[in-house]
Amino acid sequence: MEEVAEWCKGEVRTEEHTNSAKGRTTIDRFIKVRVHRPLNERQTKAYVGDHILYAGTSFKVYTNKAFTSNFDPVDVEDLKVCAQCLRGGYQG
Fold first, then answer.
1. CA dihedral sign, ordered 77, 81, 84, 90
2. Has residue 91 got a pLDDT over 80?
3. 88 versus 23: which is more confidently predicted?
4. Is 14 helix (H, G, I), strand (E, B) or coil?
5. Which residues, listed in sequence order, are joined to residue 53 by a DSSP beta bridge?
6. DSSP secondary-structure letter at 89?
7. Structural contact between residues 61 and 51, judged by C-beta atoms closer than 8 angstroms
8. How far apart are CA 23 and CA 61, in angstroms?
9. Distance from C-alpha of 81 to C-alpha of 91, rounded to nearest angstrom
10. Residue 79 has pLDDT above 70, yes or no
11. CA–CA separation, 15 vs 29, rounded Å?
12. CA distances (Å), 57 to each of 48, 60, 69, 80, in order?
């Protein structure tokens, strides 16, 4: 988590949640991410299982559900071809 926080220039933090029905308190770790114009506070917190993307000029935080509903899976071989294209080496 610390390495990801360093990459996105975020900060690892904790927050306490109390379940009043069960009388139990839990502490969650997350990365506080600087997000340009977030719609809500949750979009600035990356928990384990969330995705952090660099979007041109800033970072965005996606829950796994939001990420999988907004982006299509990519085959690893397609990524290799794409990387070759960026380097000017693909003759496909």
1. positive
2. no
3. 23
4. strand
5. 60
6. -
7. yes
8. 30
9. 10
10. no
11. 7
12. 23, 10, 23, 25
Q: Which residue shows structure tokens 């379940």?
A: 19
Contact call for residues 64 and 48 (beta carbons, < 8 A): no
Listed residue (6, 10, 12) closest to 38, CA to CA? 10
In the block, tokens 């926080």 appear at 5
Per-residue confidence (pLDDT) for residue 38, from 0 to 100: 94
Give the span between the Cα atoms of 30 and 36, in whole angstroms: 18
What element of type H or E holds 85?
A: helix 76-87
Instruction: Report the alpha-carbon distance of residue 53 to residue 78 in Å, rounded.
Output: 19
Mean pLDDT of the chain: 87
Say what percent of the chain tops pLDDT 70.
Answer: 83
Residue 10: Cβ-neighbour burial (10 angstroms; 0-12, 13-18, 19+): buried
Q: Model confidence over 33-70: pLDDT tens digits?
A: 999 999 999 999 999 999 999 988 899 999 999 999 99
pTM assigned to the model = 0.75
